[in-house]
Amino acid sequence: MTEAMSALLHVDKISKRFGGFVALEGIDLEVKPGERLGLIGPNSSGKSTLVNCICGTLQNETGTVTFDGHVVDGLAAHQRTHRGLARSFQLPRPFHSMTLADNLRIPLLYTVRAREGMLHAHSDLGARCHELLDMVGLAKKAKQMPRDLTQVEMRKLELARAMAAEPKLLIADESMAGLSHSEIEDILALLAKLNERGITIILIEHIMSAVMSFSQRLAVLVSGRKVADGKPEDVVRDPEVVRAYLGQ
Amino acid sequence: MNGVKFFLIAIGIGLLILAFAHWLELDYFYFAGYTILQFIVLATAWNILGGYCGYVNFGSAAFFALGAYSSVFIHKTFPLPVPILMLIGAAVSGFVGFGMGYLTLRLRGAFFAIATLAMAVVLQTLVVNWDYVGGSRGAYIIRPETLDIAGFQINYIEYLFVLMLVLAVIALTTARTIERSQLGFGFATIRDDEMAAEASGVPTLRVKLIATTLSGAFMGMAGAPFPYYIGYLQPASAFGLEYAVNSIAMPMIGGTTSWIGPLVGSILLGSLQQIATVTISSAVNLLIVGLLLVAFVIIAPNGLVGLVQERLRARRKP
Amino acid sequence: MDISWDLVVNAIVAGLLLGVFYAAVTAGVSISFGMLDIVNIAHPAFIILGSYIAYFVNINYGVDPIVVSIVALPAFYALGAAVYQVYYVSFEKRGQESLRGLAFFFGLLFVTEVSLILVFGVDYRYVEAAYIGPSVHIGLIDLPLRMLVPCVVALAMFAMLQLFVTRTFLGRAIMAVSQDQLALQLMAADPIRIKRIAFAISIAATSIAGALLIVIQPIEPSVGRDYIGRIFAICVLGGLGSMPGALIAAMLLGVVESLTSTFYGPSWAPAVAFGFLLLTLAFRPAGLLGR
Question: Which residues of chain B neighbour A165 with C-beta distances below 8 Å?
Fold first, then answer.
């Protein structure tokens, strides 16, 4: 019992169906504070659905999601974000009518400021936006619009926007697709730095080298079920995992 | 320029218009002007929910009519001065806006739009079957000739005109203030990508409810003086399609992203319709509005204001 | 309580017949809204257009209205394809379908209604056919042929659409495109073309629905608006994209409407569907959330 209580995120037997299609079945997952968890699985294995259920974009049908000691089922997504749960979207969803800087201003206004209840001067916010954009290498494009970005840059914006919410747990959903090797290194370094500051990170990726080097623990989803959960070296050699990947 | 300054300047312009009207000494100006001012309010109100948040309301006529019928109801029970009726109209329509929003805003935008249509028909059916406010036969409200206030005698239609002018100024100021505020920012995120807005911490339901309530309230306020203006209120006219289509066409043709759009759209389309109704027929005039709406939505999605903005941007590039 | 069972039974039967007709009216929207996610609120406008075309040819040339509607099918199909093309290029491609797409269809609805008012006026119009007038009597049940014939035609059309969607390659492609556009592209089928065909079919269905409408009741241009509520209420109640569900929901709606009309008066009838819709959207959104 004590172990469960020390977890930052505790997902307890959650399931989710879409009509007749079972997207998630009986998923158990635990993430300790400060941990770096990698989540992998073939396409359509339910990774994004799991993220959606954890973050409140979707409601799980059975089971419970507990974050930071509180049960969050039934809480709207924005309330979970206020409590420190942030995510980036697999397919970038920028606010297309605003500049990049303004895209980051939104979580700063609606999450950070709401949480702290203090009034940051506008110039403070501007500086913070710039700092965040700089961290992902988009500082020069602060005044540009999302439509002028490449796919890769949009993924970086997604990540920056999640970071702007100053989360306790950050879920990075395929932020590195299409990045060059050095760009991947940059993002991993950034995530590592965030982790050093105490931010727990769940990394969802297909790029195995990145996942292996970054994760302290690895969980594997296949067809809506968790089939492995443990040290990366062990998981990767697990016969069921191998079968799932080769079987695709 | 902050909200207060804008409000004062707008009031100043209003006073100029009033002075002009006095000088003209034409009752028709007041009648026509009232209609256009009414549309400014309706278009601006619609745009708060439609243009800023991206949620289409097809039931503007219902909110407008609710304001009108509240006035009829009160007039028959215990007559009150028109400004108070406007506040009551705001409360009634605002409440209905809130209630409907609460029931349907959790769903996709498309369902909300359909629900607004549904609500409009349900309300119309209820009113048609309610004899106290006249039912399908309609209700007569006799418009007094003048308003006696503080020893002055004002032409009643001028009084209504002034009320609507003040309301228009308030509506425009509110829209502009919202646009530049954190709330307006929140509205824009809902329009752009609601899921991302939620994930970023925007309390989308609450924000949308503010929009529907405000929007409904302004429409109710616009409707409250209507029975006095028109003298004979019939459900068919109060719930008429022309209100639904105009409150959508005017902001969409004018431009939905700023407060200027509905203003431009309502002045242009309102004047156009006044001319067309008098010269051709009211059915043709509605047809023109409908065609313009379809054309603009396809060709110039950002409306006239958008076209002007694009021209300016193009000229600025070297 | 002194209820005349005669009245109740007939109201229920009339409601069932009407319900089947409603299902036919809704079938097109099941496809365009349920499967393609296009909120075509102008659907009733096309139906009314179909009604007026049937009326015009019937009155001037004496042709049976249902026959007219079948002959008009290709024209409606082409119209549907054209409308979809405009919709796609102007809105779907740019991702603006929520606000502008709705405004577009609303504009179409409005323009159609006003144009019909200008051309035909606001008087009620009706058609003449051999089966309008006589009734079949079975025990206490009165089956007016003008309701029975459309009911049969509606069932036939509905069955054909259902078979098309479930049995033919094209039909299944339409169901697939509603679920996974990417998969369809990988199969080298053009999703846009498939959607255009589906939408065109949904509009073609309105030609027939229109003829059935004018057989059942006299029409005038604003009648279309009453149907918006019915159509979407049925779609939502029956489960989006499920045509059998729509049929059941339609019959349920038809019966409730018929009973309301009989016992409380016809002026309450439009509110029934819309009321259903509001209640469903407000309290039973299961299956609608998260789409």
Answer: 200-201
